[in-house]
Amino acid sequence: MTSKLYDPMDIANYLVVLANRSGKTITNLKLQKILYFVNAKYLVDNQGMALMDEKFQRWAYGPVMYNVYSNFRDCGAGAIEETVGTFELNQDNPFESKYNPFDDDKIDSSVKSVAKAVFDSLIDVDPFKLVRFTHEESLWSSYKEQIDQRTAPEYTDDEIYKYFKDHPEKCVWKSNNE
């Protein structure tokens, strides 16, 4: 268990690394859903302790972490083949700004373990089946009208934790590996 809050891009990039290492294809849609279930499993395993420093938004195709979506948007519906690093802006001299490639060493081994378990369980599931799983949750379906109007509130970690704790049958990551 860790008390560090991660940038969602770190966890997403790690999922891309896992896909590359395993020779599997991961698209932005599949990445979003697996990232959501990584977050859910982490919350359940750690009694509601947050994993990431941003919240998922309720979108038409289920939960989306906007920053992650934006960073991989250029891949469209195709495979994500490379991780995305960060830029460190030098305020005094922008020409001396620095690009930092993604480094999975900054992710705690317990977090990697959760991410890998969910990845292994869900990477071969059709992305639209993953969307269907999220649509079946009251966390999404109760907000359908607001989602259509783009006024739905963000998910909270507390509601995700309580939902999956109270509905263990919805823990889709358990189907193959736990």
Could you explain the architecture of this structure?
There is one protein chain. It is globular and about 50 Å long. It has nine helices and four strands. 34% of the residues are buried. The model has no long low-confidence stretch (mean pLDDT 93). It has helices spanning 8-22, 28-45, 66-72, 109-122, 127-136, 138-141, 144-149, 157-166, 174-177; strands at 57-59, 62-64, 86-88, 98-100. The protein is mainly α. Helix 1 (8-22) crosses helix 4 (109-122) and helix 2 packs across helix 4. The strands form two sheets. The protein has a two-stranded antiparallel sheet. It starts with 7 loop residues before the first helix and ends with a helix.
Q: What percent of residues are in strands?
A: 5-15%
- Radius of gyration over C-alpha positions, nearest whole angstrom: 16 Å
Distance between the termini: 18 Å
How many beta-strand segments? 4
Mean pLDDT, nearest integer?
Answer: 93
In DSSP terms (H or I, runs of 4 or more residues), the helix count works out at: 9
**Oligomeric status of the shown chains?**
single chain
Q: Which term fits the overall shape? A: globular
What structural class do helix, strand and pairing data support? mainly alpha
For the biggest sheet, the summary is: 2 strands, antiparallel
What is the topology, as strand order, of the major beta sheet? 1-2
| Low-pLDDT regions | none
- State the share of residues found in helices, binned by percent: 40-55%
